[in-house]
Amino acid sequence: QVQLVESGGGLVQPGGSLRLSCAASGFAFSTSGLSWYRQAPGKERELVAVINTFGDATYYADSVKGRFTISRDNAKNTMYLQMNSLKPEDTAVYYCSGGNGWGKGTQVTVSS
Description:
Layout: E1 3-7, E2 10-12, E3 18-25, E4 34-39, E5 46-51, E6 58-60, E7 68-73, E8 78-83, E9 92-98, E10 101-102, E11 106-110
């Protein structure tokens, strides 16, 4: 059974940083591509970042490029999203995806 559990969300001021984690189990983590998505209130879920199995190839949405960094630790079955220079428009529920499954999300709120 695929399980993905996000953590690390919270309230942060504009310009601040957060690090999200996604702990995974129930599928071949080390041979799976992984992704982060987000969904803001009233908007569709959007792709934020993708990482390949070895962690040496990544993709970022234009809106987060240069500010967010996706990474993974295959020994720990965990994926990360380092978010810097956060903006109010980054406010959303952030979801991780892998192994054809989804986590339940973690709320990120950027506000002064």
